[in-house]
Write a structure and sequence with these properties.
- With about 350 residues, this protein is of the alpha+beta class.
- About 35% of the residues lie in helices and about 25% in strands.
- The strands form three sheets. Strands 1, 4, 5, 6, 7, 8, 9 and 14 form an eight-stranded mixed beta sheet that branches. A four-stranded antiparallel beta sheet has the order 11-12-10-13. A two-stranded antiparallel ribbon has the order 2-3.
- It is globular, with a radius of gyration of 20 Å.
- It starts with a strand and ends with a strand.
- The structure holds ligand DP6.
C-alpha cells in the first residue's frame, strides 16, 4: 500500500512575541498568537522505497517544481524529530508543498510549512503503526516546534499560547495549547488581520540570527520579564473584552520587538519608511473614527492591522484609498481568525 498524507496548515500572527530561545527550540519567553485562516501551506508526503544509503532520502517539490534548496532545512527537521518519527530513515520521502499566499510575499512560511510537515508525519506514523496516536495534535505541535518555534502554535486554531506561564494552565515550553473559548470574549474570534505587504523580498534577518541576537542583548532580561507580564495582562484583556488594554499590549509588543532589533549587536532597522507611514495613518484613522485598528509587526517591514469584522467595509476602504500606495505592488492580504489545520487526505 502506498503511504501518503496531505495536510493544509495556516500561518499565525503573534500578539505576544517569541523572540529569543534556549537549547533546542525552547522559547526564552511565552508567546500568544491568532491562527489565521488564509496564508496556508498545503503539503503532501508520499513514502516510497529507499534507493540510497543516505540517512534521509527526500525529494521536495515546491509549487510544482523540484526545489533542492529546501532540502537542507527539511533534513535538519527530520534529524531533530527522528526520536518522534523513526520511520523517516526507512523510506524515501516525496514532499510536495505549495503556499496559498503569493511566493516571496514577505510572509514567513515556516509556521505554516513546518506545521503541515509535522502533521503529515503524524498521520503517516498512524498508517504505519495502524494505530491512533494518543494526543495527536500535541505530538504534531512538539514536532512542528522542532522545525520552527512559531509553527507549534499553527497546529491549533483560535488563540494559541506556547511557553510555560503560571496563568496558563497546562502550558509548556515543548508544545502549544489553546486558550479555551470560555477564557476569551467572543468578539475576538471575529477579528481580521489585514497584512500590508510593504516588502516582498527575502527576509533581511533570518529568524535563526534574530533569536540569537537576544543571547547577549543588554535588554534581554527586561524583555523576558515584560513578555511574561504581557502574557498575564493580555489574558485579562481577552477575557474581559478590554480592547484598550489589548491594543496597548499588542502594539507595545511589536514596538519592543523592533526596538530589540535596533539595539542588538549587530543592529538592524527592519521597518521601512512605508512601514512608519502606514502606522502613523492607522493611528490617525483610529483617533478620527474611534474604530479599533490595532497594529502589529513581525520581524520585517510588513504591517498587520487587526480589527473586528463589523468594521471590515470601512477599514478596507481606508486601506484601498490611503494605505495601498505604501505597499509593494499595492498588495495586501486579508485573513480572518482560523480554526487551524485541516487534513486533506
Ligand atoms: C517575530 O518561529 O520563525 O515571528 O524558531 O527560528 O524558526 P524559529 O523562529 P520563528 O520566529 C518567529 C518570530 C516572530 C514572533 C512570533 O511569531 O512569535
Amino acid at each position: 500500500m502506498l503511504l501518503n498524507a496531505t495536510w493544509e496548515s495556516p500561518s499565525n500572527i503573534a500578539l505576544v512575541k517569541y523572540w529569543g530561545k534556549k537549547g533546542i527550540q525552547i522559547p526564552a519567553n511565552p508567546s500568544l498568537s491568532f491562527t489565521l485562516n488564509e496564508a496556508k501551506t498545503r503539503t503532501e508526503i508520499t513514502l516510497l522505497e529507499k534507493t540510497s544509503n543516505d540517512d534521509y532520502q527526500i525529494k521536495v517539490i515546491f509549487e510544482g517544481k523540484e526545489a533542492p534548496n529546501f532540502e537542507g532545512k527539511i533534513i535538519q527537521f527530520l534529524n531533530r524529530t527522528t526520536h518522534l518519527f523513526t520511520f523517516t530513515k526507512e523510506y524515501q520521502l516525496q514532499i510536495e508543498t505549495a503556499n496559498t499566499f503569493p511566493h516571496s510575499s514577505g510572509i514567513a512560511s515556516s509556521a505554516s510549512g513546518m506545521s503541515a510537515l509535522a502533521l503529515c508525519l503524524c498521520t503517516l506514523e498512524e498508517q504505519i503503526e495502524n494505530n491512533k496516536t494518543l494526543d495527536f495534535y500535541r505530538k504534531a505541535s512538539i514536532a512542528a516546534r522542532l522545525g520552527s518555534g512559531s509553527a507549534c502554535r499553527s497546529v491549533y486554531g483560535g488563540l494559541v499560547s506556547w511557553g510555560k506561564h503560571p496563568l496558563y494552565p497546562g502550558s509548556s515550553d515543548e508544545f502549544a495549547t489553546v486558550l479555551e473559548p470560555t477564557e476569551v470574549f467572543e468578539g475576538f474570534y471575529g477579528f481580521i488581520d489585514a497584512i500590508l505587504l510593504v516588502d516582498i523580498g527575502e527576509k533581511e534577518v533570518s529568524s535563526t540570527l534574530g533569536h540569537s541576537l537576544l543571547e547577549k542583548h543588554p535588554f534581554a532580561e527586561t524583555r523576558y520579564a515584560t513578555a511574561n507580564n504581557n502574557m498575564g495582562a493580555i489574558k485579562t484583556a481577552l477575557k474581559e473584552g478590554d480592547i484598550e488594554l489589548f491594543t496597548k499590549i499588542v502594539e507595545a509588543e511589536a514596538m519592543m520587538l523592533h526596538a530589540l532589533m535596533m539595539t542588538s549587536n549587530p543592529y538592524f532597522i527592519l521597518m521601512k519608511p512605508n512601514t512608519l507611514a502606514i502606522i502613523q495613518k492607522v493611528w490617525d484613522f483610529r483617533k478620527q473614527t474611534g474604530i479599533h485598528t490595532v497594529i502589529t509587526l513581525d520581524a520585517g517591514a510588513n504591517v498587520h492591522i487587526l480589527f473586528h469584522e463589523q468594521y471590515k467595509e470601512t477599514v478596507i476602504d481606508f486601506i484601498k484609498t490611503d494605505l495601498v500606495m505604501h505597499c509593494s505592488e499595492k498588495k495586501y492580504i486579508c485573513s480572518s481568525i482560523g480554526n487551524g489545520p485541516a487534513q486533506i487526505k
